[in-house]
TrEMBL record:
Record-linked Gene3D superfamilies: P-loop containing nucleotide triphosphate hydrolases (3.40.50.300)
SUPFAM superfamilies attached to this UniProt entry: P-loop containing nucleoside triphosphate hydrolases
Entries under PROSITE patterns matching the protein: ABC_TRANSPORTER_1, ABC_TRANSPORTER_2
Species: Panacibacter microcysteis
PANTHER family linked: ABC TRANSPORTER, ATP-BINDING PROTEIN (PTHR43335:SF4)
Lineage of the organism: Bacteria, Pseudomonadati, Bacteroidota, Chitinophagia, Chitinophagales
Family membership: Belongs to the ABC transporter superfamily.
Keyword annotations: ATP-binding, Nucleotide-binding, Transport
Keyword match ATP-binding: yes
Designated name of the protein: ABC transporter ATP-binding protein
UniProt domain ABC transporter: residue ranges: 5-234
MF GO annotations: ATP binding; ATP hydrolysis activity
């Protein structure tokens, strides 16, 4: 599979601050590549270096087989991006915005072709309304429409769901899936809404303090058959003692709160529940936890039981 983005040993210093440190990753053609990290982890700095808005201190960036330092124009012609809130002309209509950016990009267009773009992002019915009347979600979708006007191979979206209501978030999620599945675009998306990334990403990169922690296929990073089970009882200390003296002792994981944690197979949950009942342990909750959010918390802050996901 072709490498669309190849980043090697990328580093960025701002005086005494190292925002990105020796970062390497690869985005393949067709990926929906989830770029994750806590606030201040270096995501936006990295994206700005990919778009030549910031100059790296060290390292190398290749895109589409070209070196970004030497072939900037060839590369950027194949990239569309929305960085945080899109830059739009609020006193122009959605159609007029798209027309203006098409002209600036030197793209040949027709009225029908621009209307198809607006239809794709769900704005055809509002094509001739001024952008100042749009909700934030509509502006975000129009921004993506603008980023697509020159038919790029790679779409970069930096926190595309910031400030959106649940419906707006769902609209962006569905649009990302449409770009990937129907339009065969490669999408790199950073977001702090991990539940949304979990629903769209095929591959993931997690960084912390500018350094890579984890990269790989979403299916490989967390196997749904392997679960962390969070157990809460009327008396957790007594329950812990019984578990330590039983065959479940090997499944116990270091605790991050008052609840108990066990690593087990999904198929073993009924057996665990029966065992608890036969020991007269009063269970308040028995909750399987294996979401992207859980995984993210383990590798960024809950490192005391990262092994639960990597053994």
């Amino acid at each position: 599979m072709q490498e669309i983005v190849k980043v090697t040993s990328l580093t960025k210093h701002f005086r005494n601050l190292t925002a990105v440190s020796d970062l390497s990753f690869t985005v393949h053609e067709g990926d929906v590549y989830g770029f994750l990290g806590q606030n201040g982890a270096g995501k936006s700095t990295t994206i700005r270096m990919l778009l030549t808005l910031i100059t790296p201190t060290a390292g190398n960036i290749e895109m589409f087989g070209y070196n970004l330092q030497h072939d900037r124009n060839k590369i950027l012609k194949q990239v569309g991006a929305v960085i945080e809130k899109p830059d739009l002309y609020k006193y122009l209509s959605a159609y007029e915005n798209l027309k203006l950016f098409a002209k600036l990009s030197g793209i040949k267009y027709t009225y029908n072709s621009l209307m198809r773009q607006l239809e794709m992002v769900g704005l055809a019915e509002r094509a001739h309304d001024k952008v100042k009347t749009f909700s934030q979600g509509m502006k975000q979708r129009l921004g993506i429409g603008v980023a697509l006007v020159h038919d790029p191979r790679l779409i970069i979206l930096d926190e595309p769901t910031n400030g959106l209501d649940p419906q707006g978030i769902a609209d962006i999620r569905n649009l990302i899936l449409h770009l990937s599945r129907e339009m065969k675009k490669t999408v790199l998306v950073s977001s702090h809404l991990l539940s949304e990334i979990e629903q769209v990403a095929t591959r993931l990169l997690i960084i912390d303090k500018g350094k890579k922690l984890v990269e790989g296929a979403a299916a490989d990073l967390f196997d749904p058959s392997q679960l962390i089970v969070e157990l809460d009882t009327m008396d957790n200390e007594a329950a812990l003692h019984q578990l330590q003296e039983s065959g479940w002792a090997a499944a116990l994981q270091p605790r991050r709160s008052h609840t108990l944690l066990l690593k087990t197979q999904k198929a073993q949950l009924p057996e665990l529940h029966r065992w608890l009942v036969t020991r007269n342990i009063d269970v308040l909750s028995l909750q399987p936890r294996h979401t992207l959010e859980d995984f993210f918390l383990q590798v960024t802050s809950g490192k005391q039981y990262v092994a639960a996901f990597t053994d």
